[in-house]
Amino acid sequence: MVEIQEGTSFLFVGKLSSMTREQARVLVTSLGGRCPSGVNEDLDYLVIGDENSPLYGKGDKKPKQEKVEAMIEAGARTAVINEEDFLRLLGDPPPAPR
Fold it and tell me: Which residues of the chain have a pLDDT value below 70?
């Protein structure tokens, strides 16, 4: 399992297939990460739910994704990942949400 470094931030958009966004937030915070409510310059990961994800050619980009992409173009180090990538960061299988 890859440990989430203390303070690593995750923001979830879209519907996750393996858990609710609230469960994902609880999981991240239980591992020492944080989950801001919106996009900011310090955001480490924007996690896009797999269902209707524009990463898979489905659905439309959400405003938060568009904002993060603009920040990345301006030099931000935020990574846009999908749910599968998020689960890989946690290890296989990920810890159960509390």
Answer: 1-3, 50-59, 92-98
Note whether residue 18 is domain-resident.
yes
Backbone φ, ψ for residue 34 (5° rounding): -135, 160
Q: What does the alpha-carbon distance between residue 1 and residue 98 come to, in Å, rounded to a whole number?
A: 18
36-65-35 Cα angle (round to 5): 15
**What is the pLDDT, as a whole number, of residue 36?**
96
DSSP letters spanning 46-74? EEEPSBT-GGGT-S---HHHHHHHHHHHT
Is the residue at 53 inside a domain? Answer: yes
Q: Which helix (H) or strand (E) holds 11?
A: strand 10-13
CA–CA distance, 65 with 90 (Å, rounded to integer): 22
CB atoms within 10 A of CB 52: 13
20 domain-assigned: yes
Q: How many structural domains is the chain composed of?
A: 1
Q: Range of 72's domain?
A: 10-90
